[in-house]
Amino acid sequence: MSNATDDYSDLISRRQFVELTGVSGVAALAGCGANSSDSATESGDSSTTDGDDDSPTDSTGGTNVTDATLTGATNNGVPSNLHLNPMATQNYDWTAGNHLFERFAAYNFTTQEFEMAGLESWSFEGETVTLTLREGLTWDTGEPVTAGDVITQFRLMKKTEETLWDFAESVEEGEDDKTVVITLQEPSNPEIIKHTLANGDLRIHGYQPVFDEFLDQDAAAIQQFEWEEDIHGNGPFSLESKNDQAWTLSRNDSFHAAENINFSTYELLSRQDNTALQQGLMGGELDVVTSLFAPPTIVANFPDHVEEVTLPAKWGYGIVFNHDDPDFGKRPVRQAVAHIINRQQIADNAGPRTKNPAPKVTGIAPSDQESWLGDAYDSFESYGMDATQSEAAATLLRDAGYSKSDGTWRDEDGNTLGGSYVTPAGWTDWTTATNTVVDQLNSFGFDFEVNSLPNSDYFSTYINSDFTMGALYWMPGGARSAFPYFPLRWQLNIPDIDGGHNFADGEHTVPAMDGSGEMTLNPLEEISSVATMQDQAQVDEAIKRVAWHHNQNLPVLGLVEKLDQSWLTDAEWNVVSRSDDARGVKWPSHWLPKQGKLSATEQ
Question: Between 20 and 30 A from 602 (CA), which of 25, 241, 467, 476?
Answer without folding.
Answer: 241
